[in-house]
Structure formats: structure tokens, C-alpha cells
Design a protein that fits this description.
About 25% of the residues lie in helices and about 30% in strands. It has ten helices and 19 strands. A seven-stranded mixed β-sheet has the order 2-11-10-6-7-8-9. The chain binds zinc ion (2 copies).
Length: about 375
């Protein structure tokens, strides 16, 4: 008797990860009118959080290498979904992204929250006090959804993604997918169109009534009855393929760098953001585990930039990191420790904390004696908050 396979999934779990090909964006970073700020540490032709804001564009912002096939400013994309599981192709969560990364993520019932005092992830009830609502329009915690799909005319060997936070777009996509599932019993592996649909909205604020055009996402298809019948006939084998448990999609974007230009113009509907009304336990994905991934290039750059602002040279930076995280190279910092470090450096440059030196020259960060301190984000002027 020879054995040719391991049939115990606890020992050998065979999974196929669909690689992430690229991110398609809904907008761009636009320069602020006030231009370069005192806190900018880059060249004059670059932009950072201090001197730019997200701006929605009426088309899909596609990577340069795809422009030849998709056009410069496409408003329609031909897509197919790899799986029939909504929680996998369109995961959603309530998330709060600070300048440096994720601070809170929840499913509407419970959340993981990054506690800056203990520098650890803790469980919290969700929604948290930062939930963005009509009553709390400045709230930072809001729904984020990541949509994964094939651009089947380009490749079936990996998926593309769009991250969005507009409740209107999220609802439109859910409605489109559910409609196809109602008719065809599936939405996977069916040619669909994802489009930016010009929609006129009216909203009111202190200065009166305004009308403006927004470009939410929408799903549509031009399937004839005949084609639908064909698709239904092929359901069995297609569902088998799309239902294969082993096919896994990439993890949703979990740091601000990855999502930044997608999180655009949440004020798109005036003050009528409806984040809260969308939150039902069923519509939200299970919690991911806390990211312990390594620092991103963007974070490393921020660390260096902030060290420059504080006139902290390479040696001192290393000593400070060593005393805080027992590692002295930026490369070995994780998202959590890097975020913490950036926060401390920012606190020092904002005056919330002080960079001091021991008699032997070792640097340390001194915070004022513990009173109930406010969230550090509250102290920054509104322009500094990216969304
Ligand atoms: Zn800047
Ligand atoms: Zn929250």
C-alpha cells in the first residue's frame, strides 16, 4: 500500500490564493490651496497628508500599464467575480484610519481598537464613539468595503480591488449582485459591468440647497434572456468552480497607504452620510486578526521625515527605537510598533509630548502627567485629518 495524498486538512491545508494584481482608485490626492506647509518635509512637486486632500474623480483611476487596454479615464469596467460568497468578494467593516494606519475596526457589534496608552489592540464595543453619523459628521469610524473582481479581458490569473466608503456605492453594488443572484442563482463568473454612474443629488446645509453630480459605483449587465438561460444551464459546473473553498482572496487593505486615494470625498452627499444605517451584523465581515506585518515604505519615510523635524539623528533614532521596541532598524518595526513610533514623534513635534535626553545622552519621549488626555487627532487642525 502506498499513500499518495494527505487527506487530513489539519495537517496539509491546500489553498489557492488568488493574487492581488492591482488597486483601482476612485480619486487622487489633490494639493491643498494653502500649498506646502511648515510640516512638509518633501520636494515641492510632491504631496503629503499635510498639504493634500483626497478628491473624487468621475472615472476609474487605473494603473498606467492598463491604460492601453482600458483607456485613460474609463467609466466602465468589464468584470467577473471569482466567488459567490459576498463576505469574500465584498468584505465590509467599520474602520477608523488615522494618519498612520488603522486605529479601530469592527463588525457593528465588537471592534478591535488600538489603545495608544497601552500600545496594544483591545476589544471594544462597536460602533465606537468615533462613528461617523449625521449627528457626528466629524466621526472617524466609518464603513469601508473592498470589492474584488477579475478584469477578465486582461487576466483571470489574479484579482483587482477597489476600496470604497460611500454607502451609496456599497448599496448599489450589493443590489446589483443580489439581483443577478436572484435571477441566475449566482453572480460569480458572469460578465458584469462596473460603472461610475453620474447621479444628481440635492443636499442642504447652512448656506441653502445645493445640487451636484456624484459618481457612485454601480453594477449592470446586458444579458439577453437567451444568454441568461445559457448561464443558468452552466450553473452546476460554474458553482462548483466558484464555490471551491480552497480559492482564497487577498486580505482587505489594512493600512492607510493602501487605501488612501480610494477614501475620497465622504462629504459627497452633503452631511447625509448614512454609514450607521448600513450596519447590520450580517452585512459585515468577521474580524481579521491584528496586523503584525512589517512597516511600509510610506511609514519608514514618515519616520525619517519626523526624525528630521525633531533633529534626531540616525544614532539617536536607533537608541530611541531600541528603548521602546527592542529593535533598532526601521525595517524590523511592525505596523503596530511603527504606528506607535510615528505617533510619539508626532506628539513631540505637536508639543503634546517632549523629546528629552538622559544625562548619558539617551533620548526618551516624555508625556505630561496622566490626566484624561484627549485623542491626539482632536488637537490637529481639520485640514490635517485626511478624511
Ligand atoms: Zn506636504
Ligand atoms: Zn470604531
Amino acid at each position: 500500500m502506498r499513500y499518495r495524498d494527505i487527506t487530513n486538512p489539519n495537517i496539509f491545508d491546500r489553498r489557492i490564493l488568488l493574487p492581488l494584481k492591482d488597486t483601482i482608485r476612485l480619486g487622487r490626492k489633490a494639493p491643498n490651496k494653502s500649498g506646502i506647509t511648515k510640516r512638509c518635509t518633501h520636494k515641492s512637486n510632491e504631496l503629503c497628508d499635510f498639504c493634500s486632500h483626497p478628491e473624487t474623480l468621475p472615472y476609474f483611476v487605473v494603473p498606467d500599464k492598463l491604460k492601453e487596454k482600458l483607456g485613460d479615464k474609463p467609466t466602465k469596467l468589464n468584470i467577473m467575480l471569482p466567488k459567490d460568497d459576498l463576505l469574500e468578494v465584498f468584505p465590509k467593516s467599520l474602520s477608523w484610519y488615522g494618519l498612520i494606519g488603522k486605529k479601530c475596526e469592527g463588525n457593528g457589534q465588537e471592534a478591535q481598537y488600538y489603545d495608544e496608552k497601552t500600545r496594544d489592540w483591545v476589544k471594544k464595543t462597536c460602533p465606537c464613539e468615533q462613528l461617523k453619523t449625521d449627528e457626528n459628521p466629524k466621526g472617524q469610524c466609518q464603513i469601508h468595503a473592498t470589492f474584488y473582481f477579475f478584469l477578465y479581458e486582461i487576466t483571470m490569473g489574479g484579482v483587482f480591488r477597489i476600496v470604497m466608503s460611500s454607502p451609496r456605492s456599497i448599496n448599489n453594488i450589493l443590489n446589483g449582485l443580489e439581483l443577478h443572484r436572484d435571477i441566475l442563482n449566482r453572480f460569480s463568473l458572469i460578465p458584469l459591468t462596473l460603472l461610475r454612474e453620474p447621479t444628481e443629488i440635492t443636499y442642504e446645509d447652512d448656506t441653502g440647497r445645493h445640487t451636484r453630480t456624484i459618481y457612485p459605483l454601480k453594477i449592470s449587465s446586458d444579458l439577453s434572456l437567451e444568454r441568461m438561460a445559457e448561464l443558468r444551464a452552466s450553473n452546476k459546473e460554474m458553482l462548483l468552480l466558484a464555490g471551491r473553498k480552497q480559492i482564497c482572496l487577498p486580505e482587505p487593505a489594512d493600512n492607510k497607504e493602501a487605501i488612501e486615494p480610494e477614501i475620497v470625498a465622504d462629504e459627497e452627499e452633503g452631511n447625509n452620510t448614512k454609514s450607521a444605517s448600513l450596519v447590520t451584523p450580517k452585512s459585515i465581515t468577521p474580524l481579521p486578526t491584528a496586523p503584525e506585518v512589517k512597516v511600509t515604505n510610506m511609514q519608514a519615510k514618515k519616520i525619517f521625515a519626523l526624525c528630521n523635524v525633531l533633529k534626531l539623528d540616525g544614532n539617536k533614532r536607533k537608541q530611541l527605537m531600541k528603548s521602546l521596541y527592542e529593535t533598532d532598524t526601521t525595517k524590523t518595526l511592525t505596523m503596530t510598533t511603527a504606528s506607535d513610533f510615528i505617533q510619539r514623534l508626532q506628539d513631540c513635534s505637536d508639543g503634546a509630548a517632549t523629546l528629552r535626553y538622559m544625562p548619558d545622552g539617551l533620548p526618551y519621549v516624555e508625556y505630561p502627567p496622566a490626566q484624561e488626555t484627549q485623542e491626539t487627532d482632536d488637537k490637529k487642525d481639520p485640514e490635517d485629518i485626511p478624511f
